[in-house]
Amino acid sequence: MKFKMNSLAILTAATLISTQVLANEWQGEANDAWLDGKLETALLLNTQLNNFKIDTDIKSNTAILTGEVNNETQKELAGEIARNIEGISTVKNNLTVNADYRNDDDDASFSRTWNDMTVTAGLKIEFATKDELDDTDISVSTDNGVVTLKGNVNTEAEKDLATEMARGYDKVVEVNDELVVKN
């Protein structure tokens, strides 16, 4: 079994390394598709933009951005992200700025949702592995970096520990402590 795991790890690493090398050799539509994927990913991971409202197209190493954004800053940011993708030589930023545009999905961007899920999962794991919190029943939820702790703990010390662990966790902006001491 150890041999299979090592082989799998080597195969995965070789694939990731060779994909980048091969991508540098790709030409035409294959290269444009590779660049478009890189640009879509970069926009997806940016917390200031909703990539679902920005359309991208790559033609001969030129990025074409279309769609609608709230302000000039968002337009410039999207263009700058495209310019920073290795392999993109030109950016045609055709994004439309509409001050009245209200994107209902702004608060639910992929990167924010991903960060919230990561914080929730990470805190649950940390609580589960902390000996001092063994006999507690703590529920964790995260929304836009705000962590809410609910449930029962045995002592004030357990309550304080859980709250401080959450406050110190990466990407947490605030902690709502709704924990109840059983006694």
UniProtKB/TrEMBL annotation:
Stored SMART domains: BON
PROSITE patterns: BON
Gene3D superfamilies: 3.30.1340.30
Pfam families hit by this protein: BON
BON domain sequence ranges: 31-99, 115-183
Protein name (record): BON domain-containing protein
Highest classification ranks of the organism: unclassified sequences, metagenomes, ecological metagenomes
